[in-house]
Amino acid sequence: MPRVGDPKTTPATVGDPGAAAELEWLRRGRGRGGAALPVHRTLGLQVREAEAGHCVTRMPASSAVLGPDRRILAGALGIVADACCGSAAATGLPATSAVLSAQLRLEFVRPAPVAPGWVEGRATLAAVGEGGGAALARADLVDADGDLLAICTLRSVSAAWRGLPAAASPVPVPAQGADPDQFADPRHLLGVTGEAAGGGHAHLELEPTRAVANSFGAVHGGVVAMLAHLTATEAVRPLLGPDDEAVPLDLLVNFVRGVPAAGGPVTSTATVTHRGRTFVVAEGQIALGDGRCAVRFSAGTQIRPGGHPRPAGTRHPTRADR
Prior knowledge:
Blueprint (H helix, E strand, L loop, with lengths): L18 H9 L10 H6 L2 E6 L2 E7 L16 H14 L6 E12 L9 E11 L5 E9 L5 E13 L25 H5 L1 E7 L2 E6 L14 H16 L8 E11 L10 E10 L3 E10 L4 E12 L18
Antiparallel strand pairs: 1-2, 2-4, 3-6, 3-9, 4-5, 5-6, 7-8, 8-10, 9-12, 10-11, 11-12
Helix pairs in contact: 3-5
């Protein structure tokens, strides 16, 4: 996959009359050809900048993405990551193609801010595959103080798309904005209808709605990432001591097929596959109602005994501890 030198020379801006229109749609928080992105409205996602090879997206803290401690969930950072990186990747792929998330990786640095606040993703197109079939984007996720919360990479692929965008200027669309009172908590947002956890396993049942859809009618890739991390977290939780603190380290999500929004029941399961003294890994999958696997994921977690950092002078964990 060749590295992009000057983002202004990516395939989307060379000899493609629809590229300018697509950039304008991105700036307005819309999908290919101006298609609506319900998840943007639901969560108040705002596209702050959109240029060839670069995109900045911001998500405010709302009840739909907050944990009990009033912080934005670590997994919810995936929403910002997918939004900004997906847009940056789209500028490097042909405007007549659908852009699909293939793999999302998040490396967590510090906890997200306590509400009120926001998270901003600043993405750059890093590489474009031969023939415009795939793109790789990277982003820093920061809070209102500019502190780094996580770094992420998103690999996107292009696919045939019947709804070809017009080269003409887009027509006005409703302003971007949030509906903060629509969902009481992350489980409500995801449409969770039942769950069980114990012994290093977690099982969630849900029925996603159009509120979390992307422009193709599937659950937004970032919302899928949040579900994956929530499931992994629930698998790890029963293994913690009463005073232990679980610190998210990373999340890897591989998208096999889309998860339809308002398309019926979905299940998300996770199992702890490695349990050391200080590190735990949980792996799992998200399956459609017919049993087909839609997503595979894994998440790493650090366990801090007693909820406190390791005292000065004590040894760092060795390979045997993990």
